[in-house]
Design a protein that fits this description.
209 residues, alpha/beta, TIM Barrel, 8-stranded parallel barrel, 7 helices, 10 strands, 33% helix
């Protein structure tokens, strides 16, 4: 489980206490949970000793380099479905297949292009929105997720989009997801995690397992 959109040390520790395996920090300026790299560095030493994931949208090579220098273990990279293959290949080469979580914005009628599969070991599927890259709070296409995960079991698949303590059991039953990404579903306001909701999420996971 990744708890994403963390903006404070306090929330990061709440996420860790609730059973998070990864902590996610967003560096996309359009997000209400956006952090600058300087803001992240100011709290990095006080964060729990869990793997950190930098969430970014269509970065430059220089942006990727700065994130690695900041000590992130994974890069979650969101991009358009229309992204040219040479851009995808450059991101994969700069990040590394095993450390890249590729999060394509797949339109409802589109499937994941086969030539994307060698570029990352891990793929994240979020709810589709024509203007936004994730963070909508809407649930995604659970049937598509289940199908892609079954068809490409050699990859890791992360279910994202509108997950809450209340719908988590239904989501996992519908998708057979083995990795989830939760953000707005455990917040009291954008960028502010809710301790009670995090505890409820952990309780829901324990019931499933």
């Amino acid at each position: 489980m990744k708890i994403c959109g963390l903006t404070t040390v306090e929330d990061a520790w709440s996420a860790a206490t609730a059973g998070a395996d990864f902590l996610g920090f967003i560096f996309h300026p359009a997000s209400p949970r956006h952090l600058t790299l300087d803001q992240y560095r100011s709290m990095a030493a006080a964060l729990p000793a869990l793997p950190k994931v930098a969430v970014i949208v269509e970065p430059t090579r220089e942006e990727l380099a700065r994130l690695w220098q900041a000590g992130f273990e994974r890069i979650q990279l969101h991009c358009r479905f229309e992204t040219p293959l040479d851009h995808l290949q450059a991101w994969s080469a700069a990040t590394g297949v095993d450390r890249l979580w590729l999060a394509p914005k797949l339109p409802p009628a589109e499937e994941l292009p086969p030539h994307w599969l060698p570029l990352a070991r891990t793929f994240l599927l979020d709810a589709y929105h024509a203007e936004k890259f994730g963070g909508t709070g809407q649930t995604g296409d659970w049937e598509k997720f289940r199908r892609l995960q079954a068809q490409h079991a050699q990859h890791d698949w992360i279910l994202s989009g509108g997950l809450t303590p209340d719908n988590l059991a239904a989501a996992i039953a519908a998708t057979d997801a083995r990795f989830i990404d939760v953000n707005s579903g455990v917040e009291s306001a954008p960028g502010k995690k809710d301790g009670a909701k995090l505890r409820a999420l952990n309780a829901a996971l324990e019931k499933i397992s």
